[in-house]
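Researcher: Structure for this, please.
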Amino acid sequence: MATAPTQGRHGPLTGVRVVELAGIGPGPFAAMLLADLGADVVRVDRPGGTPLGIDPARDLTNRNKRSVIVDLKAADGPARVLDLAARADILVEGYRPGVAERLGVGPEACHARNPRLVYGRMTGWGQHGPLAPRAGHDIAYIAVTGTLGMIGAPDQPPAVPANLLGDYAGGALYLVVGVLAALHHARETGTGQVVDAAIVDGTAHLSTMIHAMLAAGAWQDRRGVNLLDGGCPYYGTYRTLDGAYMAVGALEPRFHDEFLRLLGLSEHAGAHTDPARWDDLREAVAARFATRTQKEWTEVFESSDACVAPVLSLRQAPHHPHLAARGTFTDHAGLTQPAPAPRFSATPTAVRSAPARPGDGTAAVARDWDLPALLQDDA
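Model: Predicted structure, token format:
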């Protein structure tokens, strides 16, 4: 199989070719992560764009990619995708089960052209099971796994963690782990396979430690009463004088002692191991945090091991001194965005290109992947 050129490496996946069948949410994010790691990702956009509703020039999940437009419902559409799959290492799609097959670009058709292909399938419910054909979104997927029910105060409805827990942690990241593991296998054996990445599976897997604590009797099956869900007074958030918040994670005894010392509440040290005193401790901590601004408390704790940090907004985060020093956020083409992660000593990554606009990579992909047919009646 032909491979992409490796001169001027831009990450450990340089030389890996990926076809992404356009969708929204976890599939594009997974493909972005592969692209950030250096893979040559070609996004197959449909005519008319996607239903996400944002300017393609600002859709950061399409950074470091190239885009071609293919109408899979046209007579020659499936053949163009199969030509791409024949030259790829990985294909990622996020359709409901059976849709790719009906369009003529399912695993069987792709593997007939390229037996080494890793075919990654990103769905909420998975490829089988009673709900597999049903529509859904992040909140429904995490609801049935028990994870949504863990989050929030005990006397309030479960708190919605945006769509980070299901779509991206339980979905996209598990898809990336899966396709890279399958790619390793394909390179060892010459045989590709299908990776069924379901958000319900990944999100449930994320809760393994909590299930261990539940089995050991160290976790109650209700929210807001446990060590790590805001139930204890030294693992949670507190409002400051200016209406902002501080996050506290002073779990270990020595960190907890430092936390109380800097708050001026050392007389409550014994409450650390006495849940009967937690309510009193929480009230005392809340009252103390309410006496100063977030900035003032940040200065109190920033040089300590008390495990306390300010709760920042999305626009504030890039300016945090530690994140700024590490370059956790970067500016590219006028857009502030999270930098690629993780970091590599020998094959560093970078934001190499702005978000791909639909179809703007057609000529370059036709050249680099030796697919002149992409230029025929190009949309």
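Researcher: Any notable elements?
Model: Residues 1-7 have pLDDT under 50 and may be disordered. The radius of gyration is 24 Å.
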